[in-house]
Amino acid sequence: MTAKSTSQAVAIPRALTVKELADMLGISAIEVIKRLMTNGVMASQNQTIDYNTAAIVALELGFDPEEMAAPVAAVAPAAVEEEDVVDDPASLKPRPPVVTILGHVDHGKTSLLDRIRKTKVAAGEAGGITQHIGAYQVVMDGKRITFIDTPGHAAFTAMRARGAQVTDIAILVVAADDGVMPQTIEAINHALAAGVPIIVAINKIDVPAANPDRVKQQLTEHGLVVEEYGGDVIAVPVSAARGDGIDDLLESINLVAEVAELKANPDRAASAVVIEAELDSSRGPIATILVQAGTLHQSDAVVVGETSGKIKAMFDDKGGRVKAAGPSTPVIIMGLETVPEAGERIRAVADERLARQIVEARRREREAAEQTDHARVNLDTLFNEISAGKLKELIIILKADVRGSAEALKASLERLSNDEVKIKIIHSATGPVSDSDVMLAEASNGVVIAFNTKVDPSAKKRAEVSGIDIRSYNIIYQVLEDIDKALQGMLEPIYTSVVDGHAEVRHVFKSSRLGGIAGCFVTDGTLHRGSNVRVLRGKEELARTRCEGLKRFQDDVREVQTGYECGVVLSNFDKFQEGDVIEFFHEERVR
Ligand code: GDP
């Protein structure tokens, strides 16, 4: 087939099968498969390819490809997808800061959260201190501060991995007697990756072994320079046990919040994030949510993920009933149809009908998206992203067996940065690759490098689901070589062949037009015309080629199933003998 001289526009969906593309372009699937092969993509005709791959073939054939708009646009009125809403600066009003407490285990995160709440929630307030709802608000100098009551960076980054940036300020708790520990460093890196300002709370100053100066020095080594040392990080000595320094800490939060000029528009449909959710035996699905913009009202229709609902009742963190909740306010809501997940966005919409429409549109969009490959950064596709100008930074999370190799690798990797792409190692530590590392990769769109270290099974599973690239190595130069190759666009994708079925040759026919035809019996699987094949005689592989034709009696067929007889014609091979086995297979790309 020759390329057409004038280019003809063709709208190609985000994902389609090779066969569909062939039909669209008016050529045979075999032709498409050939073109794909010359571009290094092995695909059978029923395999799904993405737009970018299809567009290459279309371009080669002289078409002018264009990506078809996502189906969701037709269903959900664009205006209701709130992400598009840009608030008029004049409508923005100051809002309380939302604070998360991070730090190493046992350094006093929970104690500090408890202490702050006890100190600041006036005893006379409705219900007093009642329940743990995942977030609470206190008042300091007449200003409200919202605390997320799930300490630790795992929860923090899990939110971010889902696209929800909840936290405005991170409090890094470091025990004055223990100093900077592995999770302290992890927490610093997670907060920095999120671009969130950090206030250090040096806790346990009441214990005799407390050494706040040592903590400050250690922090400097990890890039957090406190004010005393000429930096701009506020460090506050506290004792969660005795209550020292709590007011200082809260004042510091107010100070940092003021500088950050946190604002939101309270006068529009609410947009909130789910902090915690569960199924309550008597009240049905209940969720603690944090309103981020707008004001949520009782009886509002809402959508969250692929569920809709109507707010039946709302409660504040003291268990009191409320009718409305504005920006940075945490509330418990009732009235959702199912239990949402932490980190999911919840939005108020005009009415329940619209809510259902949006949910339906989202479901369809997800189904369409599931057809396509993950759009995550992957070393194999890196070069395309670079040349398309989509990628300016390659974000790496580095785990190694020992500190020495982590440091050596980090330094060498960073030197690979070039004019197009900067290599940024946002977290490097020792130990196996954990869930938290994968979440950080999800949140930052990074890749994980495991050097001489294992990958936790749950982290592996998570990475598979979310499409995060985890690469394991034992030799430093191979890491460097791979990353360098990826930057140069030379990294060969890895393929594995997947066997689709076998045909046993029972008779050999001769045709003047086609040459030797193998009369076969399909012993297992399904054979497809156009598939890759290997011809096996005993243990010996005689040929590796393609199946040109499949026949049932006189008819050309596309596929033949187990238990049937068929005629097989291969390209460039016809020296069949009875007893030969033709193995049908396709290549699948592995990460
Ligand atoms: P988390 O794992 O970071 O949430 O730490 P916890 O809040 O559970 O505290 C760990 C331990 O340290 C507990 O036994 C606390 O009682 C203790 N602890 C927390 N803060 C202080 C403090 O300021 N002084 C002293 N002496 N002990 C504290």
Summarize the amount of helix as a percent range.
Answer: 25-40%
Summed up, the helix count is 15
> What do the pLDDT scores average to?
85
Give the tally of β-strands. 33
Spatial gap, N to C terminus: 34 Å
Tell me the radius of gyration.
30 Å
Low-confidence segments: 1-5, 71-82
Spatial strand order of the main sheet: 7-8-6-9-10-11
Percent strand equals: 25-35%
**Small molecules bound in the structure, each named once:** guanosine-5'-diphosphate
What is the SS-derived class? alpha+beta
By oligomeric state, this entry counts as: single chain
Shape: elongated
Largest sheet: 6 strands, mixed
Task: Provide an overview of this structure.
By secondary structure, this protein is an alpha+beta fold. Helix content is 27%, strand content 34%. The protein has a six-stranded mixed β-sheet, with helices on both faces. Strands 13-14-20-17-16-21 form a six-stranded antiparallel beta barrel. Helix 6 (153-161) packs parallel to helix 7 (182-194) and helix 13 runs parallel beside helix 14 (457-466). Residues 103, 105-111, 151, 203-204, 206-207, 239-241 line the site of guanosine-5'-diphosphate (GDP).
